[in-house]
Every structure is written in structure tokens, then in C-alpha cells.
Write a structure and sequence with these properties.
533 residues; mainly alpha; 69% helix; 17 helices
Length: 533
Amino acid sequence: MSDGSVQQQQSQPAVPLLQEQRVGEILAAVPERGQWRYRPRRVGLVWRSKTFRVGAVFTVLALCGLVILALVRDQTGTEGFLVGLSLAVLPVPLLMAAFRWLDRVEPWTWRNLLFAFAWGACAAALIAIIANSFATRWIATATADPASADTLGATVIAPVVEESAKATAVLLIFLFRGRHFSGILDGVVIAGFTATGFAFTENILYLGNAFGEDQQIGTSGFASVTAATFFVRVVMTPFAHPLFTVLTGLGFGFAALCARRHRLRRILLPLLGLILAMGMHALWNGSASFVPYGFYVVYGVFMVPVFGLVTWLVIWSRQRELRTLATELPAYAAAGWLTPAEPLALSSMRARGMARDMARHQHASAYGSSSAYSTSYGVPYASPGYGYPAPGPPPAHSPAYGSSRVVAQVRSHAKAQAKARGRAAARAVAEYESFATSLAFLRHRARRGAADPDFVARELELLHHLWQRREVAGPALTYAAQATGRLRPRYIPAGPAPHPQYGGYRPNPYLPPHAQQPYARPPYGSGPPPRSW
């Protein structure tokens, strides 16, 4: 047996073995990465792909939208669905514009806002329709009283289910976009967009059912059920659902203000906001069954005052954010990154808008005036620094001479180019304002002990973005500060004391050493910021 096995092994072809002593020679012969034939299998990495996550979220919301569309159309009919859709869409632009106006200091991207709206209109509405219907049928079967089942479902079941479904969107953005979730306004805006989407779908259902009821009984005009439903849900109470969910958003906003070490507060505050939202929703749904005029009592005594209180709190929060800019940014100006007038302009919404308008007008008019000479010859002019040819008349053989049509076309082209230059300048100022706002909030969180682990890298990146746009944004913001009367020495606030953990502020590496402020901390590294940013 042993001899046969030895002969069998000797008959097999010999496989060369790589000697460990030749490891350098072996590795040197490995082809480049682009020519590799064998690659590691990505086990589990698909869940970490941003494209996969975005596609999964879009697919889920699209499926929920199709299902909710089929359910609403089945309950209201085609005509009722179209009527309900045309009437329910009316308050949506107004509510979205109101929340967007509140979010002007550090605005959310439209991608996040549209996700919140789509979640409320599709996913939350689908969960509410299915759960409420199931719960109402179960209560009616258990109690054998359909009337009490409807009342109990609307007063107890619906507020819990609907507010929990809407709060899920705020929770998802709070968890996965926590870097941008910095305060009360963020929670209010996300909650408002989510509730606006939910109210939009719910109004389609209610208005469509009201139209179907009018078709059965033959009523029309102002005496119809559709008109009454429209007046109550769209005219009188368009802010009902947003007001309920905003309480949840306030809880998440206060939790975002807490330091990361206060984990209990970051959990209890959103739960408290959700409980308040459920309680207000239950009171609103049950107001008609309490007393004969309970709806008007709750509306006048409770809903309107709470709406006024929340509105005041939101406006106060926005003014507080502007004061944060006026407090945090002067230290960066003292270190040479900003001009002394920029913190004053950035802390005023009026000055911000004026700076954007000034940059748009100045760059557009400068391009138009500089192109006036060359358009008389039939060729456009632009500064070589922006990638256009240098000014000058065309050659003698150019067909532009004596051609009025060509001259008109070139002047029209120059005008379009001037507008494009103006829009680009205004966009640069808007980006500068956004980066400066993020920088101030980043520093403010660090001083409160809620800084992110990558605080230093994010600060450097924001300063680099500001420096890239300084040439365009600096003069515009200085002009806006002067035009609004904010550039006065007595109104220039002093910078805060350096944070004990993170030190002072980084000086400008582009200034010579003798121009640096004496109290600015040493730079993080020698030389300008890396170009990889």
C-alpha cells in the first residue's frame, strides 16, 4: 500500500512552490491593479453602498405611492380622486414655502425635504390607512358597536398610528443626517414637510369621499359636502397635521442641542415630543364628540394659541441662530479668514439677500460694460481670467464688419453671458454664506461639548471653501453690512473665549507671520490647505 501510494504521487506532475525567501521578487512581478483577474468578493458591502441605499429608499417610497394611489382611487372612484387631488394640492405650496422660509439660515437640501414629504405622503399614509382600518374593524367586531368603534379608532388609534408613522421620517433623518441636524429649526422643518405630505394624501381621501357623497345625494355648490370639507380641512385647518408633528420635531431639535454624553436626554426628549403630538391629535379628533360645539372650542381655545406659541418659538430659534453667527464668526475674522464686516452681514437675513443681489448686479454689469466696446465690432468680450478670449476688434476679413444681424446676435450672446456671470457670482455668495453658517454652528457645538470626532478636519475644509469664494463674496458682504447700517464699531461683538479642548482658531496660512493675530493658535500644519479638498 505504501509503495503504490508513493508511485502514484511520483506519477503526478510536480507543482512549483513559491519560496518565502523570494517574496520581494514575487511581489514585484504582480501586475497593476487595473489588470488584476482575481478580485475579492464584496460580501455584505452592498448595504454600505450609497447608490444601493438611495435606490432602496426610492423603490420603497415608489411602491408605497402606487399602493396608496390604488387604495385611495378604490375608495373615492376616479372622478372623486381627481377632484380630491385638485383641491388637496392647493395648500401644499403655501405650507412648503412657509417651512422653507423658516429654514433660510442653514437650509436643508431639497433631497432631504422631498424625502420627508414623500415619506409622509406615501409611506406614513399607507401605514395609517392599513393600521386604522384593521384596528377599527377589530374594535367593531370585539364590541359589536360600529359607532363606538369609529369614535374610539379616531380618538385613540389614529393619533398613535399616524404620529408614529410621521415621526419615523424625522427619526431617520436624525440618525442618518445627524451632522446637519443641529437645532430646533431643523426638527420643525423636517416634521413640517413630513406632515404636509401626509395631510396632502389624507385630504385627497376626505375630499374624494365627500365628492362621491355629493354625487349620491345630488348636492352641489356651497351647500355641498365637498365645499364644507374643503373649508374645514384646507381653509380653516391647513396647519393641523403640521402642528401635531412639529411637536415631535421640537423634541428631536432639543435632543440635537444636547451634548452626546447626555444620552438619556437625547432619547427622552423626542419621546416627550411624540407623546405631546399624539395627545394634541387625539384632542383634535375627539373635539366633535365632546360637546355640540367642541370643534370650535378646541380650535379657538387650544389650537390657535398653540399655533401662535410654536410660531413664536420657531422665529425666536431663527433669531438665536443668527446671534450664534454674530458670536462665533468674529474670532475667525480676527484670525484673518473673514473681514470684520462679514460676521455682521452674515448675521442678518436682509444683508445676506442684499449681498447676493449686489454680486449678481455687479458682475453682470461689469461684464456687460466691458463687452460694449467689442460688440460694436461684432465679437463678444470677456476677461481672460474666466476662460474667454482677450478683448479686441476682429480682423479686417471678418464677416462681422457691416453685418447688423451678426452684431445683434453677438450682443444677445453677450447679454446672456453677463446674466450667467451674475448668477454664478450670486451662487458663489450663497455658498459662502452656507459654509460660514456651518462653520459657526460647528464651532458652537464644539464649545458646548457636542463636537463631532472629525471636528478639526471639517473646520479646515470649511475654511478652505470660504477662502476659494472670498474674492467674490467679501466685497458683496461688506457692501451689504454698510448698506444695512450694521457696520458700526460699537456693534462689532467680541469673539468667544477659546474652547479648552479645541484651543483657539486657526490663523490664515496665506498671511505673513507679522500679520497674524497674536492670540490665534498655531496652524495645524505648514503651508496652505491641501489641494485634495
